[in-house]
Amino acid sequence: MNPITRRTILSLPLVCGLGTGVGYAQTKEVTIAHQDMIVPFRVQQAAGAVEKATGYKINWKMFGGGGDVIKAMASGEVPIGEVGSSPATAAAAQGMDVQIVWILDDINDAEQLVVSQKSGITKLADLKGKKIATPLASTAHYQLMFALTKAGINPKEVQILNMRPPEIAAAWERGDLDGTFIWDPVLSKVKTAGGKMILSSADVAKQGAPTFDAVMVNKAWADKNKPFVTALVKEMAKADATYKVEKAKYTVDSDLVKTIAKVVGAEPKDVPQALADYRFPTAAEQASNAWLAGGKDSGVAKAMANTATFLKEQGRITNIPADFGKFVNPEYAAAAK
Questions:
Q1: Which of 41, 72, 112, 129 is exposed most, by the fewest CB atoms within 10 A?
Q2: Please, what are the domains in the chain?
Q3: Per-residue pLDDT tens digits for 274-327
Q4: d(CA 39, CA 276)
């Protein structure tokens, strides 16, 4: 596994003097930043499983993209957040005191470049001059840029519009866009409203840029709240394991699917396929060198290094840390095995 680092990178101006000086009150209350990714853990999230396991009061706050999550972490608003591999890499490159402690999902086929059937677009070369929306600095944005560059197309020749998922859905409905690189729940909405997929994240992965979503923590906070982080990761691992062995129960009319849909704002009919588009590495897999273990030689650290190289070439970051291993911590996944 050689994942490349979702959701929301590039030029995060937020990180001026960030990282080490952020302080958090040591109370049994915490705000966790989550996004709209359709993953099994949403069931535990809705049920208050982590609260019951830890005694903490958790304020779950949904953000529109990884870039926004990173900004909130940099400001001290939240110490834990769900981010894509691209924004996670940018945060590390810009000096934040953060670590990846869990892989929420291997994005696999879950992000896609969808174009309007009225646009006349059938291949990447047809994107020149077209309006393509994606959340700035997201893994989708990263993959779009990577695919264009790989195809010999200057991204500047494409009108790449920075929009959050709900804005993309509205713009698509108005007919303002030629295409979008996006994930569910918006992905399903645009595909059922005249969109067709011409490239998936799995295709981009085969070209050398696989992506993932991760749980990132402020290291100083996590070090002082290890039992909580351990319990959080265990609940996430439990959710993924349950889905793996009971996948047949996640039907459109099931309470499981309805719960996930409610948390992220999706339609229940879109949830089963969205879940199937992701891959959820087990705790044992994550505690191995394929993902989180092995320091700078871990799969995640190598992926972040590769991502950083591309982002620097694109002028999105200016610094590449010598060792991304310090931004990856396998101990919580190991405890969840």
A1: 129
A2: 29-106+211-335 (3.40.190.10), 111-206 (3.40.190.10)
A3: 999 999 999 999 999 999 999 999 999 999 999 999 999 888 899 999 999 999
A4: 10
137: left (phi over 0), alpha (psi -120 to 50) or beta: left
* Both tokens assigned to 139: 């893994």
C-alpha triplet 302, 92, 229: angle, nearest 5°: 90
Q: How far apart are CA 291 and CA 244, in angstroms?
A: 19
Q: Please state, in angstroms and as integers, the Cα–Cα distance from residue 174 to each residue in 5, 66, 169, 295, following that order.
A: 32, 26, 9, 48
| Most distant CA pair in the chain, distance | 56
- CB count within 10 Å of CB 214 equals 29
pLDDT band at 208 (very low <50, low <70, confident <90, very high): confident
The position carrying tokens 């709900």 is 166
Q: Indicate the burial class of 315 (C-beta count within 10 angstroms; 0-12, 13-18, 19 or more).
A: exposed
Q: How far apart are CA 15 and CA 113, in angstroms?
A: 30
